[in-house]
Automatic annotation (TrEMBL):
InterPro entries: FAS1-like_DH_region (IPR039569), HadA-like (IPR016709), HotDog_dom_sf (IPR029069)
Domain FAS1-like dehydratase, first and last residues per copy: 8-138
SUPFAM superfamilies cross-referenced by the UniProt entry: Thioesterase/thiol ester dehydrase-isomerase (SSF54637)
Pfam family of the protein (one): FAS1_DH_region
The protein, known as: MaoC family dehydratase N-terminal domain-containing protein
Length: 152
């Protein structure tokens, strides 16, 4: 198993930009049971004061998957993706975003730790989302890299 070097704390990913489109937002809103029509109906969104369909809660995680280099981080660390687990996620919202907004994402490693004698290694990353220079959201995600040879 690769040991995660704590010196990666503070390292940053290259930014990438993506633009959410209405169809994806509607699909996600419906799939996650959003009942408020502002997430699926443009007229309802505009009547509520939005310039377009607002991005539903947690959809930023889906947009983060648009990163064409999303697998590079773990590959550069020498981590076998078969040994990772999703350990947690938190969203902090700073401003609303909508369909058609050009959003920029970049990530920074904020913490590296281990438990069970190194059998479980934790990596915490903050992904910052902005529109131009305006902060929109911060996504905090924790992954666990487990040692497949460790006793369970």
């Amino acid at each position: 198993m690769t040991t995660i070097d704590p010196s990666i704390v503070g390292s940053r990913s290259e930014p990438f930009t993506t633009t959410p489109e209405r169809g994806r937002l509607r699909f996600f809103a419906e799939a996650t049971g959003q009942r408020d029509p502002v997430y699926t109906d443009l007229s309802a969104a505009e009547a509520a004061g939005h310039p377009d369909l607002p991005i539903p809660p947690t959809f930023f995680f889906c947009l983060e998957m648009d990163n064409p280099h999303r697998h590079r981080f773990l590959a550069d660390l020498g981590v076998d993706v078969r040994t990772i687990l999703h350990a947690g996620q938190r969203f902090t919202y700073h401003a609303p975003a909508h369909a058609g907004d050009e959003l920029t994402f970049w990530s920074e490693v904020t913490e590296v730790s281990s438990k069970k004698g190194g059998a479980l290694q934790f990596i915490v990353r903050d992904t910052h989302v902005s529109r131009a220079d305006e902060p929109i959201a911060t996504l905090t995600g924790t992954i666990v890299v487990r040692d497949p040879k460790a006793a369970r």
